[in-house]
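Input set for joint prediction.
Command: fold jointly, output tokens.
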Amino acid sequence: MAWNKRDDQPTHPEPQPVQPRTAPAPAAAPTPAAASTGSASSAPEPRRASSERATIGASILIKGDLSGDEDLVIEGRVEGKVDLKQNNVTVGRNGRVRADIFGRVVIIEGEVDGNVFAQEQAILRQAGAIRGNITAPRVILEDGSRFKGSIDMEDKDAKGAKDNRPHPVETKPAVQAG
Amino acid sequence: MSWFSRGRKAAAAQIEEEAPELHRSLGLTALFESMRRRGQGLRILDLGSAVGSNVEFLSQLGCKLYIEDLFASRTAAPDEEILGPEFFEQLLTQPDDVQFDVVLAWDLFNYLQRKELAHLATVLRKRCRPGALLLALVSIHKQVPAQPIRFRIRSESELLYERRTSVERPGPRYAPAELNSLLKGFRVDRSFLLRHGVQEYLFVREEG
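tokens >
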């Protein structure tokens, strides 16, 4: 987990950024790719599976930008930016985030004051709250969750394909089960 | 993050939900017919609470959805008998150049006093394109649930009513003519009186 301190961060010794502890995911079995010990080659390094994840504990306050190469669970407070586009980001029940969040799958169970950008899916759990905009191909809002902002679910790939069509085609929504 | 703590308080105030009821919605049918004619990319402002299945349904129409839970914001606002225009000005947080094509007001008119309704109309008039549509469901009963109903779109012609409380309060029982005069800049395009005591209105934002 890399730590990028922002230039505009105050220099007074407020809460110091703490290196998040890395812990193995409880039930994540190593995938064949992750378990492989293949020798060095020119092949691109496979993206690290979610066998590792970092946790920002409930007593931790981080001000600045977060970036890295593993999944992240936030139970503490983060102010700045969370940039883990290739990884999953979970804001736990105790998590309080005042930042834009970039992730592959972003799950919100706590509170987020900022925009959420998910490559695959954004999930707002029942206990969660977002004040900001969600951009993701798929968005799940559980009943009881609190949300104030906009939702953009346009799939970029689908949009590109659609734009290539000679004529616009209307889509008919399927009847929902409830 | 005061919005969050206030929101929690509002959520905690919820009382046991009742069994949902399925009702036909002629207003919704008319709205979707009109939306289809206008094509994709419409901007929809939902003034109700976030309902996941509605988000999914509307996204299939290629719309961009904006959710501003009016009732939750009202609950979070300082206790004032009548909310002033500032409240409604601050309700919509999007940039001014975001102009809406559709507004889903659901049953929220039942929870606004006359002056508040006029303030809301003033804000919506500024933030809606000419020709924009506004769907409202107004009760004709003397009593309405103490909290707005959660409406779940089941199809283009059906709504599931999910009452969130069995407690009731007096309803304003707005008449069509009264709504027309309060919602300046909008006119009733179509209205439907339904058997279960709800009058559905489809308003249109007028030119100018």
